[in-house]
Amino acid sequence: MRLLYEFTAPEIKQKSFRLDGVFFPLEEFHQEPLYFVEIQFYKDDEFYDRLFTSIFLIDKAEEELTDTFSQRKVIEFIETIVVYKFPNLSREEIEAMLNLNLLKNTKVYQEAKAEGKEEGELKAKLKIVPKLVQRGLSIQEIAELLELDTEVIRKAL
């Protein structure tokens, strides 16, 4: 049986915030996610407040985590949580809140940016379809010109 993870229970010393545990993937499995562990056996209405307070001590964590691989995994995890926890905040607001410009380097950000770009390009192409029809181009010609399927062109009309 091969192990994928190393379990640690780091303490961020500044204010003695302690995480119950973190599963760091081993070097050869660096693509695997990082797991933060919080164990509780009772209802705690302030659970997320404490969790975020612990996590937002990222500057201290960066100082105490010596390898860049672990630092990067922690930062990606925190950014992902913040994006989901505060869906109404803009990218700039999240970057300002975290005092980080690393969001742009995350896979989620890159994928969302690429998806938005593709949607924008398609929308721009479809916007000119009626004008091309007015100029006498056939659906087939428009599809070839815009590098789109003829069915997409038909639906745009």
Verbal overview:
With 157 residues, the chain is mainly α. It has 2 domains: 5-105, no CATH class; 117-156, no CATH class. The chain is built from 7 helices and 5 strands; from the N terminus they run E-E-E-E-E-H-H-H-H-H-H-H. The protein has a 3-stranded antiparallel sheet, with helices on one face. The longest helix has 28 residues, at 107-134. It starts with a strand and ends with a helix.
Largest beta sheet, briefly? 3 strands, antiparallel
- List the domain count as a whole number: 2
Unreliable runs: 12-17
Oligomeric state of the chains present here: single chain
Proportion of residues in β-strands: 5-15%
Radius of gyration: 24 Å
SSE run: EEEEEHHHHHHH
| N-end to C-end Cα span | 59 Å
Count of helices?
7
Strand-pairing-aware structural class: mainly alpha
Mean pLDDT: 73
How helical, in percent, are the residues? 40-55%
What is the approximate shape? elongated
Enumerate the strands of the largest sheet in spatial order, edge to edge or round the barrel: 1-4-5
The tally of strands reads 5
Task: Summarize it.
This protein is mainly alpha-helical and 157 residues long. The chain is built from 7 helices and 5 strands, in the order E-E-E-E-E-H-H-H-H-H-H-H. The protein has 2 domains: 5-105, no CATH class; 117-156, no CATH class.
Secondary structure elements and their pairing?
Layout (H helix, E strand, L loop, with lengths): L4 E4 L2 E2 L4 E2 L2 E5 L9 E3 L9 H9 L2 H7 L3 H18 L5 H8 L8 H28 L4 H8 L3 H7 L1
Antiparallel strand pairs: 1-4, 2-3, 4-5
Helix pairs in contact: 6-7
